[in-house]
Design goal:
23% helix; 4 helices; Lipocalin; 29% strand; 266 residues; alpha+beta; 2 domains; 9-stranded mixed β-barrel; globular
Length: 266
């Protein structure tokens, strides 16, 4: 604005009465700029900052039992007949990935929130996730991964996140997913009394999982985490090699969930 006003003064001839009109113009420009800044500030204020340390505070999944397709249900039955509790991938540090990771196991979570992205670190399994903001030129998806490729935008005070490019998770008793899985999240902050009666901040994530090869209808998850600035992330070391060696020693082969038929082919 200062450059505009200076240019106006320099280019305008000095005439009687000109001073009042110039001052009026300066005042109008200043008010317009202030109004724009105030509006922008109000919009930013409505958007919460997710940064901080959090701890899981409960998860609810519906419907129950999970509505497997007929072909997927046959895989579930085969899996249960061959795999035991000792064969659980979590014992061998296999990342649960999306959408199972939010906010499940009782381990601390740390979030770094910037205008261009949200970065989440889990103490459990040493997991890491990046959520890119759609209005900051997000990079393209590269290879399928446990956390997938996440791009988000704001709807008021809610961060809406779309995740695709997920690799298969063929563990049929742990909310299995195919590479066709698609996840939508609505993440927000709520302030309400905790179990101790004190006001606390809660990170609420409403998740919808759609995977038509695996499930007859969308799966809905509501996961919550409570703000815990008194905690810290501890080291958690894992390797996939142990799991691969274990499966080989047991003669077990994971089901090929991507080979499930399309819903209209059953």
């Amino acid at each position: 604005m200062s450059h505009f006003v200076l240019a106006f003064f320099r280019s305008s001839p000095r005439r009687p009465g000109r001073r009042c009109s110039v001052l009026g113009l300066v005042g109008a420009v200043a008010l317009a700029a202030a109004g724009s800044a105030a509006a922008q500030g109000t919009g930013d204020a409505a958007r919460p900052d997710f940064s901080g340390l959090w701890f899981p505070a409960g998860t609810r999944t519906t419907p129950q039992p999970l509505p497997f397709t007929d072909a997927a249900q046959r895989l579930v039955e085969q899996y249960r007949s061959e795999f035991t509790l000792d064969d659980d991938p979590g014992r061998y540090c296999i990342w649960p990935g999306m959408p199972r990771a939010v906010w499940g196991a009782p381990f601390t979570i740390e979030i770094f929130h910037r205008p261009q992205d949200v970065t989440i670190y889990w103490e459990g399994y040493g997991m890491y996730r990046k959520i890119y903001m759609a209005d900051h030129n997000p990079p393209p998806a590269l290879v399928p991964s446990a956390m997938g490729h996440s791009v988000a935008h704001w709807e008021g005070d809610t961060l809406v996140i779309e995740t695709t490019n997920l690799k298969p998770y063929p563990y049929m008793t742990r909310m299995a997913t195919t590479s066709d899985a698609h996840v939508i999240e609505r993440m927000r902050i709520e302030e309400r009394p905790g179990d101790d009666g004190q006001m606390r901040r809660y990170l609420v994530d409403e998740i919808t999982l759609t995977d038509p090869k695996m499930y007859k209808e969308p799966i809905r998850i509501v996961a919550q985490a409570v703000h815990r600035p008194d905690l810290q992330l501890l080291e958690y070391t894992c390797t996939d090699t142990l799991w691969d060696e274990y499966l080989q020693s047991r003669g077990l082969t994971l089901p090929d969930v991507d080979a499930l038929p399309e819903p209209d082919e059953e």
